[in-house]
Amino acid sequence: MKPRWISRMISAPLGVMLFLAGPAWAQPDWVKQERQSTLRRAEPIRVGGRQRGRSIVDWQQGYIQVTTRATADPKMCVNIFQCRSLADRAARTLAYVELTRIIKGVNVTASSILRDELVKVSAARTFVRGFIRGARQIGETRFKAIEGTKHVEAEVSMGILINGGLTRGILKLEYKKPPIPPRQTYRPKTFTVKLAPPPAPTPPARPSPPASAPKKETSAPGAVYTGVIIDASGLGVRPALVAKLRTPDLKVFYGTHLVPRELAMNFGLAGYAGTEEQARATHKSRIGESPLVVKGLRAHGTRKADIVLSEEDSQRVVLADLKGKFLQKAKVVIVINK
Prior knowledge:
The chain has about 350 residues and is an alpha/beta fold. It has ten helices and 15 strands. The protein folds into two domains: about 5-175, no CATH class; about 180-190 and about 225-335, no CATH class.
């Protein structure tokens, strides 16, 4: 059953928007062919069978953006300025509707999506309602007259952040839930694996003085790993606000029980990338210069958001964290191939 506040927010403005909608326009180039992936999805927005813009969900860059277009019927306008105002209002209303629709489908955990939270938790409904209304406009509203008609078309782009935006409210609610029982967590007292030291970062090339003898490069003593990259390519993993790392017997060794609430709300529990190279480039500030790289074993959960690692790799991550202390700082990036 649809929550009452969603019906009130959508039904009346959407009715006005549909009444104001003008004739269909030619299909833009970005609708014809755009490569889709788990990390980045771009879809056309349709109203009444007509394309009214597009939406983009980008987990690697961490944002959701909608671009919507609407027109105003000149019969309802006193002058051109009122037509522009009505078209702008209709485009904004459609943007809010689409942001709400997209957010409701975001994975929260490996077993739930945000729509489930909206039905069960009133605080989630309150947060989403205010969060959508606080979406930022990207650029200015663009107006143009539709050739051959008296209609004025308005185009509006609205965007929200995932980490540091959507996570601020949803993870706050997640941290209010009962913590993971200690018997379901994993923190071995003894280790059966050895951890190789991280490779030293490659220094920038410098011209060597002609008289000096070449020196051998050695890794810094006591070097530690600065983060971890989980290679989950080919496993069908889907991005989520709360992603956990598990052992083969499904014990959790990374999740909300390790990361402080404020840090998780501001930066999220994990970043996402399409390749290891993109992870190092896009999330360098998160995982640092020398991240540990391990391969995921399989995806877990109905939403396939948690990642199961082998016993050996689970120990490697925990062992590296004993020196690097990167798990409690959420220095985790998950690679999902495109």
